[in-house]
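hey m, so remember when u said the C-alpha cells were messed up on ur end? i reran from scratch. heres the input so u can diff it against urs
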Amino acid sequence: MSRFVTLLWILIAGIGALALYQIKHEVIAQERELARLNRAIVQEQESIHVLRAEWSLVNQPKRLQALAERHLDLQPMKPGQFGRVDAVPAQSPQVPPAQPRAIAQERR
C-alpha cells in the first residue's frame, strides 16, 4: 500500500511538473507577443507624432494664404452676388440616381 501511495504521489508530481513546464512556455510566448505589441504601439505613437508635426506645418495660416493667392483666382464678393433666402427653392429638384458604369456599358 505504501508503494502504491508513493507511486501515486510521484505520478501526481510528474503531471504537475509537465503542466508547469507547459504553462511556463505559454507565458514566455505571451510575453514575446506583449513585447511585440508594445513595440508596435510605440512605433505608431511616433508616427502619429510625426504626422501631427507635419499637419501643423502644412496647416499654417500664412502658408495657406500664400498658396491661395498663388493658385486660386479669388476676388472679393460684390453686393450683386448676394441673394435673398426666400429666393432659394424649398426643395432641390429630383435628380435620377446614377447608374454604375458596368450597367451603363451593357446598355450601349
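this time it looks ok to me. Residues 2-58 form the longest helix (57 residues). if urs says something different then somethings off w ur setup not the seq
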